[in-house]
From TrEMBL, chain A:
Chain ranges passing through the membrane: 6-26
Family recorded in the similarity comment: Belongs to the ribosome association toxin RatA family.
UniProt keyword annotation of Nucleotide-binding present: no
Annotated protein name in UniProt: Cyclase
Pfam families, A to Z: Polyketide_cyc
Keywords: Membrane, Transmembrane, Transmembrane helix
Matching PANTHER family: POLYKETIDE CYCLASE/DEHYDRASE AND LIPID TRANSPORT SUPERFAMILY PROTEIN (PTHR33824), POLYKETIDE CYCLASE_DEHYDRASE AND LIPID TRANSPORT SUPERFAMILY PROTEIN (PTHR33824:SF7)
Domain Coenzyme Q-binding protein COQ10 START: 64-180
Annotated signal sequence range: none
Keyword hit for Ribonucleoprotein: no
Automatic annotation (TrEMBL), chain B:
Protein name: Glutathione-dependent formaldehyde dehydrogenase
GO molecular function (one): oxidoreductase activity
Pfam families reported for this sequence: ADH_N, ADH_zinc_N
CDD domains in the record: FDH_like_1
Family: Belongs to the zinc-containing alcohol dehydrogenase family.
Organism: Devosia pacifica
Cofactor names: Zn(2+)
Gene, per the UniProt record: fdh
Record keywords: Metal-binding, Oxidoreductase, Zinc
Length: 210, 389
Protein backbone atom coordinates (compact mmCIF):
# COMPACT_ATOMS: atom_id res chain seq x y z
CA UNK A 1 0.00 0.00 0.00
CA UNK A 2 1.44 3.29 -1.01
CA UNK A 3 1.11 6.42 1.01
CA UNK A 4 -1.34 9.12 0.04
CA UNK A 5 -1.10 12.79 0.37
CA UNK A 6 -4.22 14.12 2.06
CA UNK A 7 -3.44 17.77 1.76
CA UNK A 8 -6.55 19.86 1.18
CA UNK A 9 -6.23 21.02 -2.40
CA UNK A 10 -9.62 22.43 -3.18
CA UNK A 11 -9.98 24.72 -0.26
CA UNK A 12 -7.63 27.03 -2.08
CA UNK A 13 -8.87 26.58 -5.63
CA UNK A 14 -11.62 29.09 -5.82
CA UNK A 15 -9.58 31.97 -4.54
CA UNK A 16 -7.66 32.94 -7.63
CA UNK A 17 -4.47 32.70 -9.57
CA UNK A 18 -2.26 33.28 -6.59
CA UNK A 19 -3.87 30.36 -4.85
CA UNK A 20 -3.35 28.12 -7.85
CA UNK A 21 0.32 28.94 -7.80
CA UNK A 22 0.36 28.40 -4.08
CA UNK A 23 -0.79 24.85 -4.58
CA UNK A 24 1.87 24.29 -7.16
CA UNK A 25 4.44 25.38 -4.61
CA UNK A 26 3.00 23.06 -2.02
CA UNK A 27 3.34 20.19 -4.39
CA UNK A 28 7.08 19.82 -4.52
CA UNK A 29 7.95 21.86 -7.60
CA UNK A 30 10.60 24.02 -5.97
CA UNK A 31 12.93 24.32 -8.94
CA UNK A 32 10.71 26.74 -10.87
CA UNK A 33 10.07 30.26 -9.74
CA UNK A 34 6.62 31.79 -10.07
CA UNK A 35 5.57 35.36 -10.43
CA UNK A 36 2.62 35.88 -8.13
CA UNK A 37 0.04 37.80 -10.17
CA UNK A 38 -2.72 39.74 -8.47
CA UNK A 39 -5.94 37.71 -8.48
CA UNK A 40 -8.60 38.49 -11.10
CA UNK A 41 -12.29 37.55 -10.99
CA UNK A 42 -11.93 34.25 -12.86
CA UNK A 43 -11.68 30.91 -11.08
CA UNK A 44 -8.07 30.07 -10.19
CA UNK A 45 -8.17 26.83 -12.11
CA UNK A 46 -8.33 28.84 -15.35
CA UNK A 47 -4.98 30.52 -14.79
CA UNK A 48 -2.86 30.07 -17.90
CA UNK A 49 -0.10 28.65 -15.76
CA UNK A 50 -2.22 26.81 -13.22
CA UNK A 51 -0.28 23.86 -11.89
CA UNK A 52 -1.66 21.54 -9.26
CA UNK A 53 1.36 19.31 -9.00
CA UNK A 54 0.41 15.65 -8.98
CA UNK A 55 -3.26 16.53 -8.86
CA UNK A 56 -5.48 16.77 -11.88
CA UNK A 57 -8.24 19.32 -11.42
CA UNK A 58 -11.52 19.51 -13.30
CA UNK A 59 -14.01 22.26 -12.72
CA UNK A 60 -17.13 23.48 -14.47
CA UNK A 61 -19.96 25.89 -13.78
CA UNK A 62 -23.49 25.60 -15.13
CA UNK A 63 -26.54 27.84 -14.72
CA UNK A 64 -29.66 25.92 -13.73
CA UNK A 65 -33.08 27.51 -13.53
CA UNK A 66 -34.01 26.02 -10.15
CA UNK A 67 -33.65 27.30 -6.56
CA UNK A 68 -30.37 26.61 -4.74
CA UNK A 69 -31.89 24.50 -2.02
CA UNK A 70 -33.63 22.12 -4.44
CA UNK A 71 -30.38 21.51 -6.35
CA UNK A 72 -28.41 21.14 -3.13
CA UNK A 73 -30.87 18.58 -1.76
CA UNK A 74 -30.71 16.44 -4.89
CA UNK A 75 -26.91 16.47 -4.96
CA UNK A 76 -26.54 15.92 -1.19
CA UNK A 77 -28.26 12.56 -1.58
CA UNK A 78 -25.18 11.03 -3.19
CA UNK A 79 -27.15 8.01 -4.36
CA UNK A 80 -28.67 10.38 -6.97
CA UNK A 81 -25.31 11.13 -8.58
CA UNK A 82 -25.30 8.02 -10.75
CA UNK A 83 -28.45 9.28 -12.48
CA UNK A 84 -26.48 11.93 -14.35
CA UNK A 85 -22.79 11.00 -13.93
CA UNK A 86 -21.80 8.58 -16.63
CA UNK A 87 -18.87 6.98 -14.81
CA UNK A 88 -20.48 6.69 -11.40
CA UNK A 89 -22.11 3.29 -11.14
CA UNK A 90 -23.41 3.76 -7.61
CA UNK A 91 -22.85 5.68 -4.39
CA UNK A 92 -23.78 3.79 -1.23
CA UNK A 93 -23.50 4.66 2.47
CA UNK A 94 -20.34 3.42 4.22
CA UNK A 95 -19.50 3.38 7.92
CA UNK A 96 -19.38 6.51 10.12
CA UNK A 97 -21.26 8.62 7.58
CA UNK A 98 -18.86 7.91 4.75
CA UNK A 99 -19.93 7.07 1.19
CA UNK A 100 -18.64 4.32 -1.07
CA UNK A 101 -18.45 5.47 -4.69
CA UNK A 102 -18.27 2.77 -7.37
CA UNK A 103 -16.62 4.29 -10.43
CA UNK A 104 -16.62 2.56 -13.81
CA UNK A 105 -13.11 2.10 -15.19
CA UNK A 106 -12.08 1.03 -18.69
CA UNK A 107 -12.18 -2.63 -19.71
CA UNK A 108 -15.30 -3.36 -17.70
CA UNK A 109 -13.57 -2.83 -14.36
CA UNK A 110 -14.67 -0.67 -11.52
CA UNK A 111 -12.98 1.14 -8.67
CA UNK A 112 -14.35 1.87 -5.22
CA UNK A 113 -13.54 5.08 -3.43
CA UNK A 114 -14.63 5.86 0.13
CA UNK A 115 -15.27 9.54 0.83
CA UNK A 116 -16.23 11.66 3.79
CA UNK A 117 -18.11 14.94 3.68
CA UNK A 118 -15.65 17.51 5.04
CA UNK A 119 -17.68 20.68 4.68
CA UNK A 120 -21.35 21.32 4.23
CA UNK A 121 -23.45 24.47 4.28
CA UNK A 122 -27.14 23.91 3.57
CA UNK A 123 -28.14 25.24 0.15
CA UNK A 124 -24.60 26.49 -0.51
CA UNK A 125 -21.80 23.99 -0.47
CA UNK A 126 -20.89 20.32 -0.23
CA UNK A 127 -17.23 19.26 -0.05
CA UNK A 128 -15.95 15.72 0.21
CA UNK A 129 -12.57 13.99 0.40
CA UNK A 130 -11.41 10.41 0.03
CA UNK A 131 -10.55 8.74 3.33
CA UNK A 132 -7.03 7.67 4.26
CA UNK A 133 -6.06 4.51 2.38
CA UNK A 134 -8.60 4.97 -0.39
CA UNK A 135 -7.55 3.70 -3.84
CA UNK A 136 -7.76 7.20 -5.33
CA UNK A 137 -6.71 10.33 -3.52
CA UNK A 138 -9.49 12.74 -4.46
CA UNK A 139 -11.56 15.59 -3.21
CA UNK A 140 -14.43 17.53 -4.65
CA UNK A 141 -16.76 20.34 -3.91
CA UNK A 142 -19.92 21.66 -5.40
CA UNK A 143 -21.09 25.18 -4.68
CA UNK A 144 -24.54 26.67 -5.28
CA UNK A 145 -24.87 30.45 -5.76
CA UNK A 146 -27.88 32.55 -6.74
CA UNK A 147 -27.74 33.86 -10.30
CA UNK A 148 -28.87 37.46 -10.89
CA UNK A 149 -32.47 38.45 -11.52
CA UNK A 150 -34.02 35.16 -10.49
CA UNK A 151 -32.40 33.25 -13.30
CA UNK A 152 -31.65 30.31 -11.08
CA UNK A 153 -28.46 28.97 -9.56
CA UNK A 154 -24.83 28.85 -10.62
CA UNK A 155 -23.66 25.32 -9.84
CA UNK A 156 -19.89 24.99 -9.76
CA UNK A 157 -18.34 21.57 -9.31
CA UNK A 158 -14.60 21.04 -8.86
CA UNK A 159 -12.89 17.69 -8.50
CA UNK A 160 -9.20 17.12 -7.85
CA UNK A 161 -7.59 13.71 -7.81
CA UNK A 162 -4.21 12.05 -7.71
CA UNK A 163 -4.19 8.71 -9.46
CA UNK A 164 -2.30 5.89 -7.72
CA UNK A 165 0.49 3.95 -9.40
CA UNK A 166 0.39 0.46 -10.89
CA UNK A 167 -2.13 -1.14 -13.22
CA UNK A 168 -5.11 0.38 -11.41
CA UNK A 169 -3.56 3.80 -11.70
CA UNK A 170 -3.05 3.33 -15.39
CA UNK A 171 -6.71 2.46 -15.84
CA UNK A 172 -7.89 5.37 -13.74
CA UNK A 173 -5.58 7.76 -15.50
CA UNK A 174 -7.01 6.57 -18.78
CA UNK A 175 -10.50 7.07 -17.44
CA UNK A 176 -9.93 10.59 -16.20
CA UNK A 177 -7.60 11.81 -18.87
CA UNK A 178 -10.15 11.08 -21.52
CA UNK A 179 -10.93 14.79 -21.88
CA UNK A 180 -11.74 15.29 -18.20
CA UNK A 181 -13.09 18.75 -18.83
CA UNK A 182 -15.40 17.46 -21.53
CA UNK A 183 -16.58 14.73 -19.16
CA UNK A 184 -17.18 17.27 -16.40
CA UNK A 185 -19.10 19.54 -18.70
CA UNK A 186 -21.30 16.67 -19.88
CA UNK A 187 -22.08 15.59 -16.30
CA UNK A 188 -23.19 19.07 -15.31
CA UNK A 189 -25.27 19.47 -18.46
CA UNK A 190 -27.03 16.19 -17.69
CA UNK A 191 -27.66 17.47 -14.15
CA UNK A 192 -29.16 20.64 -15.62
CA UNK A 193 -31.37 18.65 -18.03
CA UNK A 194 -32.61 16.39 -15.26
CA UNK A 195 -33.37 19.32 -12.93
CA UNK A 196 -35.00 21.56 -15.56
CA UNK A 197 -36.90 18.98 -17.64
CA UNK A 198 -37.15 15.86 -15.51
CA UNK A 199 -35.23 13.78 -18.03
CA UNK A 200 -31.87 13.50 -19.77
CA UNK A 201 -31.95 14.16 -23.50
CA UNK A 202 -30.92 11.29 -25.75
CA UNK A 203 -31.18 10.78 -29.49
CA UNK A 204 -31.50 7.01 -29.07
CA UNK A 205 -34.92 5.98 -30.29
CA UNK A 206 -35.03 2.64 -28.46
CA UNK A 207 -34.62 1.74 -24.81
CA UNK A 208 -32.02 -0.86 -25.73
CA UNK A 209 -30.30 -1.98 -28.90
CA UNK A 210 -32.67 -3.88 -31.19
CA UNK B 1 -39.92 -0.16 -40.21
CA UNK B 2 -38.84 1.46 -43.46
CA UNK B 3 -36.90 4.72 -43.31
CA UNK B 4 -34.91 7.02 -45.58
CA UNK B 5 -31.29 6.86 -44.45
CA UNK B 6 -28.19 8.90 -45.31
CA UNK B 7 -25.09 7.06 -46.47
CA UNK B 8 -22.93 9.83 -47.93
CA UNK B 9 -22.95 12.57 -50.54
CA UNK B 10 -25.81 11.96 -52.99
CA UNK B 11 -26.42 8.53 -51.43
CA UNK B 12 -29.73 8.12 -49.58
CA UNK B 13 -31.58 4.80 -49.36
CA UNK B 14 -34.77 3.38 -47.95
CA UNK B 15 -33.67 0.77 -45.41
CA UNK B 16 -35.39 -1.48 -42.90
CA UNK B 17 -34.46 -0.29 -39.38
CA UNK B 18 -35.74 -1.04 -35.85
CA UNK B 19 -39.01 0.63 -34.84
CA UNK B 20 -38.70 3.52 -32.37
CA UNK B 21 -39.92 3.22 -28.78
CA UNK B 22 -40.77 5.50 -25.88
CA UNK B 23 -37.39 6.22 -24.21
CA UNK B 24 -38.02 9.23 -21.95
CA UNK B 25 -41.16 10.08 -19.94
CA UNK B 26 -42.18 13.05 -22.10
CA UNK B 27 -41.84 11.13 -25.42
CA UNK B 28 -44.49 10.17 -27.93
CA UNK B 29 -44.19 7.88 -30.95
CA UNK B 30 -45.96 8.85 -34.18
CA UNK B 31 -47.03 6.85 -37.19
CA UNK B 32 -45.95 9.28 -39.90
CA UNK B 33 -48.67 10.15 -42.43
CA UNK B 34 -46.85 12.85 -44.45
CA UNK B 35 -43.27 14.05 -44.55
CA UNK B 36 -41.54 16.49 -46.88
CA UNK B 37 -38.05 16.89 -48.26
CA UNK B 38 -36.63 20.27 -47.23
CA UNK B 39 -34.07 22.45 -48.96
CA UNK B 40 -31.85 21.94 -45.92
CA UNK B 41 -32.07 18.17 -46.51
CA UNK B 42 -30.31 18.99 -49.76
CA UNK B 43 -27.40 20.46 -47.77
CA UNK B 44 -27.09 17.01 -46.17
CA UNK B 45 -27.54 15.34 -49.56
CA UNK B 46 -24.70 17.47 -50.93
CA UNK B 47 -22.54 16.57 -47.94
CA UNK B 48 -21.85 20.19 -46.94
CA UNK B 49 -23.10 19.92 -43.34
CA UNK B 50 -20.61 18.31 -40.94
CA UNK B 51 -21.51 15.70 -38.35
CA UNK B 52 -23.53 13.16 -40.37
CA UNK B 53 -23.15 9.41 -39.84
CA UNK B 54 -23.95 6.64 -42.26
CA UNK B 55 -27.39 5.21 -41.49
CA UNK B 56 -28.87 8.42 -40.02
CA UNK B 57 -32.62 8.69 -40.65
CA UNK B 58 -33.40 12.03 -42.34
CA UNK B 59 -36.54 14.16 -42.26
CA UNK B 60 -37.51 17.15 -40.14
CA UNK B 61 -40.81 18.11 -41.78
CA UNK B 62 -43.37 15.54 -40.73
CA UNK B 63 -46.74 14.89 -39.16
CA UNK B 64 -48.65 11.84 -38.12
CA UNK B 65 -50.86 10.00 -35.71
CA UNK B 66 -49.89 9.46 -32.08
CA UNK B 67 -49.52 5.70 -31.50
CA UNK B 68 -47.68 5.63 -28.17
CA UNK B 69 -47.09 8.07 -25.31
CA UNK B 70 -44.76 8.24 -22.32
CA UNK B 71 -46.19 8.87 -18.82
CA UNK B 72 -45.43 12.64 -18.97
CA UNK B 73 -46.68 13.25 -22.52
CA UNK B 74 -49.81 15.39 -22.83
CA UNK B 75 -50.78 13.84 -26.18
CA UNK B 76 -53.35 11.09 -26.58
CA UNK B 77 -53.20 8.08 -28.85
CA UNK B 78 -55.05 8.72 -32.11
CA UNK B 79 -54.43 12.50 -32.19
CA UNK B 80 -53.07 13.95 -35.43
CA UNK B 81 -50.14 16.28 -34.85
CA UNK B 82 -47.61 18.35 -36.77
CA UNK B 83 -44.16 18.35 -35.16
CA UNK B 84 -41.79 21.36 -35.16
CA UNK B 85 -38.36 20.51 -36.58
CA UNK B 86 -36.73 22.15 -33.55
CA UNK B 87 -36.71 19.97 -30.45
CA UNK B 88 -37.27 22.14 -27.36
CA UNK B 89 -37.72 21.35 -23.68
CA UNK B 90 -40.09 24.24 -22.94
CA UNK B 91 -38.61 24.95 -19.51
CA UNK B 92 -35.06 26.30 -19.93
CA UNK B 93 -34.23 30.03 -19.98
CA UNK B 94 -34.40 30.14 -23.78
CA UNK B 95 -37.65 28.24 -24.16
CA UNK B 96 -39.23 30.52 -21.55
CA UNK B 97 -38.24 33.46 -23.79
CA UNK B 98 -39.73 31.55 -26.74
CA UNK B 99 -36.28 31.23 -28.28
CA UNK B 100 -36.98 27.57 -28.89
CA UNK B 101 -34.16 26.91 -31.35
CA UNK B 102 -31.71 27.93 -28.63
CA UNK B 103 -33.07 25.31 -26.18
CA UNK B 104 -30.37 24.29 -23.71
CA UNK B 105 -31.70 20.86 -22.88
CA UNK B 106 -32.67 19.00 -26.05
CA UNK B 107 -29.24 18.51 -27.60
CA UNK B 108 -27.72 15.50 -25.79
CA UNK B 109 -24.71 16.45 -23.62
CA UNK B 110 -22.34 14.16 -25.52
CA UNK B 111 -23.42 15.69 -28.86
CA UNK B 112 -22.63 19.25 -27.80
CA UNK B 113 -18.86 18.77 -27.92
CA UNK B 114 -18.56 19.54 -31.64
CA UNK B 115 -20.58 22.77 -31.51
CA UNK B 116 -18.90 24.39 -28.54
CA UNK B 117 -15.46 24.99 -30.07
CA UNK B 118 -17.08 26.01 -33.38
CA UNK B 119 -20.01 28.17 -32.24
CA UNK B 120 -19.27 28.78 -28.55
CA UNK B 121 -22.51 27.03 -27.61
CA UNK B 122 -24.57 24.09 -28.76
CA UNK B 123 -27.97 25.00 -30.17
CA UNK B 124 -31.22 23.07 -29.80
CA UNK B 125 -31.56 19.62 -31.26
CA UNK B 126 -33.24 19.18 -34.64
CA UNK B 127 -34.87 16.11 -36.10
CA UNK B 128 -33.10 14.19 -38.84
CA UNK B 129 -30.08 16.43 -39.06
CA UNK B 130 -26.41 16.60 -38.14
CA UNK B 131 -25.10 15.09 -34.90
CA UNK B 132 -24.07 18.66 -34.02
CA UNK B 133 -27.78 19.23 -33.56
CA UNK B 134 -28.34 16.02 -31.67
CA UNK B 135 -28.46 13.36 -34.37
CA UNK B 136 -32.12 12.55 -33.60
CA UNK B 137 -33.68 10.07 -36.05
CA UNK B 138 -35.94 11.98 -38.43
CA UNK B 139 -39.45 11.60 -39.76
CA UNK B 140 -38.88 10.34 -43.30
CA UNK B 141 -39.87 6.98 -41.89
CA UNK B 142 -42.93 4.97 -40.97
CA UNK B 143 -42.56 5.85 -37.28
CA UNK B 144 -40.68 8.48 -35.30
CA UNK B 145 -39.91 9.12 -31.63
CA UNK B 146 -40.85 12.67 -30.60
CA UNK B 147 -39.12 13.92 -27.41
CA UNK B 148 -40.76 16.66 -25.28
CA UNK B 149 -44.07 15.82 -26.94
CA UNK B 150 -45.86 18.00 -24.37
CA UNK B 151 -44.15 21.11 -25.81
CA UNK B 152 -43.63 20.78 -29.56
CA UNK B 153 -46.42 19.04 -31.46
CA UNK B 154 -49.57 20.94 -32.43
CA UNK B 155 -52.82 18.99 -32.59
CA UNK B 156 -54.62 19.32 -35.94
CA UNK B 157 -58.41 19.67 -35.97
CA UNK B 158 -60.42 17.07 -37.85
CA UNK B 159 -61.25 17.94 -41.42
CA UNK B 160 -57.93 19.55 -42.30
CA UNK B 161 -55.79 17.73 -44.88
CA UNK B 162 -52.16 16.86 -44.23
CA UNK B 163 -51.17 19.01 -47.22
CA UNK B 164 -52.71 22.11 -45.62
CA UNK B 165 -50.84 21.85 -42.34
CA UNK B 166 -47.64 19.83 -42.96
CA UNK B 167 -45.53 22.93 -43.56
CA UNK B 168 -46.23 24.20 -40.02
CA UNK B 169 -43.31 21.88 -39.17
CA UNK B 170 -40.69 24.18 -40.68
CA UNK B 171 -40.92 26.18 -43.89
CA UNK B 172 -44.05 28.20 -43.16
CA UNK B 173 -42.90 29.40 -39.71
CA UNK B 174 -39.40 29.87 -41.18
CA UNK B 175 -40.71 32.12 -43.96
CA UNK B 176 -42.91 33.92 -41.42
CA UNK B 177 -40.05 34.52 -38.96
CA UNK B 178 -37.88 35.72 -41.87
CA UNK B 179 -40.47 38.40 -42.62
CA UNK B 180 -40.97 39.20 -38.91
CA UNK B 181 -37.20 39.73 -38.61
CA UNK B 182 -37.54 42.49 -41.23
CA UNK B 183 -39.60 44.66 -38.80
CA UNK B 184 -41.74 45.69 -41.75
CA UNK B 185 -43.21 49.19 -41.67
CA UNK B 186 -46.02 50.45 -43.91
CA UNK B 187 -44.67 51.41 -47.33
CA UNK B 188 -41.62 49.15 -47.07
CA UNK B 189 -40.01 47.36 -49.98
CA UNK B 190 -38.63 43.92 -49.08
CA UNK B 191 -36.27 42.01 -51.38
CA UNK B 192 -36.12 38.21 -51.06
CA UNK B 193 -33.21 36.18 -52.45
CA UNK B 194 -34.30 32.63 -53.27
CA UNK B 195 -37.79 31.51 -54.31
CA UNK B 196 -37.60 28.10 -52.75
CA UNK B 197 -40.29 27.14 -50.24
CA UNK B 198 -38.94 29.42 -47.48
CA UNK B 199 -38.53 32.35 -49.87
CA UNK B 200 -42.06 31.90 -51.22
CA UNK B 201 -43.53 31.77 -47.71
CA UNK B 202 -41.45 34.84 -46.84
CA UNK B 203 -43.00 36.63 -49.84
CA UNK B 204 -46.53 35.76 -48.63
CA UNK B 205 -45.68 36.66 -45.04
CA UNK B 206 -44.08 40.01 -45.91
CA UNK B 207 -47.22 40.96 -47.85
CA UNK B 208 -49.43 39.95 -44.91
CA UNK B 209 -47.27 42.03 -42.58
CA UNK B 210 -47.90 45.10 -44.71
CA UNK B 211 -44.95 45.33 -47.10
CA UNK B 212 -45.92 47.64 -49.97
CA UNK B 213 -43.60 45.92 -52.45
CA UNK B 214 -41.84 42.55 -52.40
CA UNK B 215 -39.10 41.87 -54.95
CA UNK B 216 -38.20 38.19 -55.36
CA UNK B 217 -34.91 37.05 -56.90
CA UNK B 218 -34.18 33.61 -58.38
CA UNK B 219 -33.23 32.02 -61.70
CA UNK B 220 -35.91 29.34 -62.03
CA UNK B 221 -38.80 30.64 -64.17
CA UNK B 222 -41.46 28.51 -62.48
CA UNK B 223 -40.41 29.55 -58.99
CA UNK B 224 -40.42 33.21 -60.03
CA UNK B 225 -43.90 32.67 -61.45
CA UNK B 226 -45.06 31.35 -58.05
CA UNK B 227 -43.63 34.46 -56.40
CA UNK B 228 -45.55 36.67 -58.83
CA UNK B 229 -48.71 34.75 -57.92
CA UNK B 230 -48.35 36.18 -54.41
CA UNK B 231 -47.92 39.71 -55.69
CA UNK B 232 -44.13 39.91 -55.85
CA UNK B 233 -42.15 41.71 -58.51
CA UNK B 234 -39.36 39.44 -59.73
CA UNK B 235 -35.76 39.57 -60.93
CA UNK B 236 -34.15 36.65 -62.77
CA UNK B 237 -30.47 36.83 -61.83
CA UNK B 238 -29.48 35.00 -64.99
CA UNK B 239 -31.00 37.79 -67.07
CA UNK B 240 -30.47 40.89 -64.97
CA UNK B 241 -27.81 42.63 -62.86
CA UNK B 242 -29.53 42.26 -59.50
CA UNK B 243 -27.80 45.01 -57.52
CA UNK B 244 -28.29 47.69 -60.13
CA UNK B 245 -31.86 46.58 -60.79
CA UNK B 246 -32.76 46.92 -57.11
CA UNK B 247 -31.32 50.44 -57.03
CA UNK B 248 -33.25 51.44 -60.14
CA UNK B 249 -36.47 49.86 -58.91
CA UNK B 250 -36.24 51.78 -55.62
CA UNK B 251 -35.02 55.12 -56.98
CA UNK B 252 -31.53 54.60 -55.60
CA UNK B 253 -32.68 54.04 -52.02
CA UNK B 254 -32.41 50.24 -51.96
CA UNK B 255 -34.87 47.84 -50.33
CA UNK B 256 -35.80 48.69 -46.72
CA UNK B 257 -35.26 45.08 -45.74
CA UNK B 258 -33.62 42.08 -47.39
CA UNK B 259 -34.12 38.36 -46.82
CA UNK B 260 -31.46 35.78 -47.67
CA UNK B 261 -33.56 32.65 -48.20
CA UNK B 262 -30.72 30.97 -50.07
CA UNK B 263 -28.11 30.00 -47.51
CA UNK B 264 -24.83 28.22 -47.86
CA UNK B 265 -25.26 26.76 -51.34
CA UNK B 266 -25.85 29.83 -53.49
CA UNK B 267 -26.18 29.24 -57.23
CA UNK B 268 -24.74 31.25 -60.10
CA UNK B 269 -21.45 32.12 -61.70
CA UNK B 270 -20.45 35.25 -59.81
CA UNK B 271 -16.67 35.06 -59.18
CA UNK B 272 -17.04 34.81 -55.39
CA UNK B 273 -19.45 31.92 -55.79
CA UNK B 274 -17.27 29.93 -58.18
CA UNK B 275 -14.36 30.14 -55.75
CA UNK B 276 -16.57 29.12 -52.82
CA UNK B 277 -18.02 26.12 -54.68
CA UNK B 278 -14.45 24.91 -55.06
CA UNK B 279 -13.72 25.47 -51.35
CA UNK B 280 -16.89 23.65 -50.31
CA UNK B 281 -15.90 20.67 -52.41
CA UNK B 282 -12.62 20.57 -50.50
CA UNK B 283 -14.65 20.30 -47.30
CA UNK B 284 -13.13 23.20 -45.38
CA UNK B 285 -16.40 24.28 -43.69
CA UNK B 286 -16.72 27.07 -46.25
CA UNK B 287 -20.12 28.68 -46.76
CA UNK B 288 -21.14 30.17 -50.10
CA UNK B 289 -22.32 33.67 -49.47
CA UNK B 290 -23.00 35.35 -52.79
CA UNK B 291 -26.68 36.02 -52.09
CA UNK B 292 -25.94 37.34 -48.59
CA UNK B 293 -23.21 39.69 -49.83
CA UNK B 294 -25.47 41.02 -52.57
CA UNK B 295 -28.28 41.54 -50.05
CA UNK B 296 -26.08 43.47 -47.62
CA UNK B 297 -24.71 45.73 -50.33
CA UNK B 298 -28.19 46.34 -51.81
CA UNK B 299 -30.18 47.10 -48.66
CA UNK B 300 -30.78 50.75 -47.85
CA UNK B 301 -28.85 52.63 -45.19
CA UNK B 302 -30.21 51.72 -41.75
CA UNK B 303 -32.01 48.76 -43.33
CA UNK B 304 -32.71 45.33 -41.96
CA UNK B 305 -31.06 42.07 -43.00
CA UNK B 306 -32.97 38.87 -42.26
CA UNK B 307 -31.18 35.59 -42.84
CA UNK B 308 -33.29 32.43 -42.64
CA UNK B 309 -30.88 30.69 -45.02
CA UNK B 310 -28.75 28.02 -43.37
CA UNK B 311 -25.01 28.53 -42.88
CA UNK B 312 -22.75 26.18 -40.97
CA UNK B 313 -19.18 27.39 -40.98
CA UNK B 314 -17.12 30.36 -42.11
CA UNK B 315 -17.47 32.97 -44.82
CA UNK B 316 -14.72 34.98 -46.49
CA UNK B 317 -15.05 38.45 -47.97
CA UNK B 318 -17.92 39.35 -45.67
CA UNK B 319 -18.97 42.98 -46.36
CA UNK B 320 -18.49 44.02 -42.77
CA UNK B 321 -17.77 47.60 -43.79
CA UNK B 322 -21.16 47.93 -45.52
CA UNK B 323 -22.82 46.43 -42.45
CA UNK B 324 -21.22 48.96 -40.11
CA UNK B 325 -21.08 52.06 -42.27
CA UNK B 326 -24.71 51.75 -43.41
CA UNK B 327 -25.83 50.95 -39.84
CA UNK B 328 -27.63 47.74 -40.69
CA UNK B 329 -29.52 45.47 -38.33
CA UNK B 330 -29.10 41.76 -38.77
CA UNK B 331 -31.38 39.02 -37.48
CA UNK B 332 -31.11 35.32 -38.15
CA UNK B 333 -31.31 31.89 -36.51
CA UNK B 334 -33.00 28.55 -36.78
CA UNK B 335 -36.72 29.10 -36.52
CA UNK B 336 -38.43 29.28 -33.12
CA UNK B 337 -41.16 27.09 -34.64
CA UNK B 338 -43.22 26.56 -31.48
CA UNK B 339 -43.68 30.35 -31.16
CA UNK B 340 -45.63 30.52 -34.43
CA UNK B 341 -47.55 27.28 -34.98
CA UNK B 342 -50.85 28.15 -33.26
CA UNK B 343 -51.15 31.54 -34.97
CA UNK B 344 -50.22 30.17 -38.38
CA UNK B 345 -52.65 27.24 -38.05
CA UNK B 346 -55.42 29.79 -37.48
CA UNK B 347 -54.33 31.79 -40.55
CA UNK B 348 -54.41 28.63 -42.68
CA UNK B 349 -57.89 27.79 -41.35
CA UNK B 350 -59.09 31.30 -42.17
CA UNK B 351 -57.70 31.07 -45.70
CA UNK B 352 -55.16 33.86 -45.15
CA UNK B 353 -52.20 31.70 -46.08
CA UNK B 354 -52.04 29.20 -48.95
CA UNK B 355 -49.77 26.25 -48.32
CA UNK B 356 -50.80 23.65 -50.88
CA UNK B 357 -49.68 25.64 -53.98
CA UNK B 358 -46.11 24.58 -53.26
CA UNK B 359 -46.44 20.81 -53.54
CA UNK B 360 -45.34 19.65 -56.97
CA UNK B 361 -44.85 15.95 -56.29
CA UNK B 362 -46.22 13.29 -53.96
CA UNK B 363 -44.27 10.03 -53.74
CA UNK B 364 -44.42 6.88 -51.64
CA UNK B 365 -41.60 6.73 -49.05
CA UNK B 366 -40.01 3.90 -51.04
CA UNK B 367 -39.35 6.40 -53.87
CA UNK B 368 -37.74 8.98 -51.58
CA UNK B 369 -34.29 8.66 -53.25
CA UNK B 370 -35.89 9.67 -56.58
CA UNK B 371 -37.49 12.60 -54.79
CA UNK B 372 -34.10 13.75 -53.45
CA UNK B 373 -32.48 13.39 -56.86
CA UNK B 374 -35.10 15.46 -58.65
CA UNK B 375 -35.65 18.06 -55.91
CA UNK B 376 -31.89 18.53 -56.12
CA UNK B 377 -31.38 18.64 -59.87
CA UNK B 378 -34.74 19.72 -61.33
CA UNK B 379 -35.46 22.61 -59.00
CA UNK B 380 -37.62 24.48 -61.48
CA UNK B 381 -40.43 21.90 -61.64
CA UNK B 382 -39.76 20.02 -58.38
CA UNK B 383 -40.71 22.79 -55.94
CA UNK B 384 -41.72 20.53 -53.04
CA UNK B 385 -41.85 16.78 -52.54
CA UNK B 386 -44.19 15.17 -50.01
CA UNK B 387 -43.51 11.56 -49.08
CA UNK B 388 -46.22 9.18 -47.93
CA UNK B 389 -44.90 6.34 -45.74
Amino acid sequence: MQSHSQRPVLGLLAIGVGAAVGIALLNQRPSRSYRIAPPDSAPGRLAKHADFGDYAVVGKTVLIDKPRQELFDYWRDFSNLSSFMENIEAVKPGTNGSSIWTIAAPAGQSVEVETQVVDERAGELIAWRSVEGSSIDTEGRVAFRDAPAGRGTYVEAIVAYKPPGGELGRLIAKLFQREPNVQGRRELKRFKMLMETGEIATSRNRREAA
Amino acid sequence: MRALTWHGTHDVRVDTVPDPQIVNPRDAVLKVTSTAICGSDLHLYDGVIPGMLSGDILGHEFMGEVVDVGPKSTLKKGQRVVVPFTISCGSCYFCQKQQYSACDNSNPAEKQDISEPLYGHAVSALFGYSHMTGGYPGGQAEYVRVPFSDVGPIVIPDGMDDDEVLFLSDILPTGWMAAENCDIEPGDTVAVWGCGPVGLFAVQSAKLMGAERVIAIDHYPHRLELARKFGAETIDFNQTKVGEALMEMTGGIGPDAVIDAVGMEAHGFAPDNVLEVAKQKLGVAADRGHALREAIVSVRKGGRVSMPGVYGGFLDKFPLGAMMEKGLQWRTGQTHVQRYTADLLRRIQEGEIDTTFLISHRLPLEEAPTGYKNFHSKQDEWTKVVLKP
